[in-house]
Each structure stands twice: as structure tokens, then as C-alpha cells.
Design goal:
Number of helices: 2
Largest sheet: 8 strands, antiparallel
Radius of gyration: 17 Å
Shape: globular
Structural class: alpha+beta
Distance between the termini: 33 Å
Order of helices and strands: HHEEEEEEEE
Number of strands: 8
Length: about 200
Amino acid sequence: MGIVQPNFKAAGLNSNESAAIATLKNISSAQSQMQASGSIDVNGNGQGEYAFFAEMAGTLPLRGSKLPLAQPVLSEKFGNVVGGRVQRGGYWYQMFLPQTKDGWTTELPTGGGGPEVNAGAAEVSWMCYAWPVEPGKTGNRSFFISQYGDVLATNMANEVYGGGNAPLVGLSAFAADDSEYLYAANKEDKRGNTWVVI
């Protein structure tokens, strides 16, 4: 039994991580649908904007509207936003959109967003982090995805993310040489973790 138990644990970790990767790819697809549909167009320029989880899940009104998305592109479970995050399969997920001032803003504590989102920049950029609820128990790696659609992973060799200790927006998965590369694809980020494209 002493040999079997670690194998079960490893299988569980691998299963959670595989599910997290698949979830991020699904989120990327949902964001593409949101942008292409023009369901959110706060500045009224005819260009669709990216969305937060509760907006894509149809559980809260879309930005600039009093109505939710008629045909949700994510599971309703993504509408269960707590502290701006969603927990699924042993992982936390957090979405970020550009804010009106420089930088990024996350989802409101119970979901959705408002005037803090830069409508023009939200037409072209978004990013999402996923990290284990309990490092070493629900997952060994953290993940990142953006509008480019590539999933990046880190084994958190330098800085461990877990539970309330979340990746730092604009630093985690962002390349140390920001002038040349925006994201740390097969590079070290500004916090000392190396991220690889998977």
C-alpha cells in the first residue's frame, strides 16, 4: 500500500492539472466567441470586447447592459465568483482585463465588471491565471493564458502559488525583459519562475 498511495496521489495531481489546461483552452474559446459576437461593446465602436467569468456564464448582466448573455459560452458554474475568482477541480481561476488606468483589473468580488475596464483595450487583451488550491495536493503547477491562446505552465520553483497566495498580475508569467517579450514563454518571469508553453 505504501507504494500504491503515492501513485494514486500523482494520478490525482495529473488529472487536476490536465483538467486545468483543458479549462483554460475552453476559456480561450469562450473569449474568442465573446469578442467576435460583439455582445459587449461599451464604447459603441462596433468592436466586441472580452469578458469576465460571470458575464460569459450568463449569471450577471454584461458590461454596458442590464441583461445577461442570452446564450452563455461558459458553464453556469463559472458564475460562482468568490473574491473575483472561481474554484474548479482543485484550482483557482482569475480573469483580468485592461483597466482605465494603466495595468489590469480583475472581476468584481461577486462577478462581472464595470467602468474600471478600459473598453478599447478590452477589445484586444485579456489574461487568466490558474493555480492550485493546495500546492502539492491539488496540483504542482500554475498556468496562464492570454488572448494569444497559448497555455503557459510553471512548476513554481522560485515562488509558489496556492490558495490565497495568487500569481501577481503583470509580473507572474510576464517576461523579465518586458521591452522584447510581453509574456514569459519558455523564459523566466519577473518573479523568478520559468514558464513553458505546453
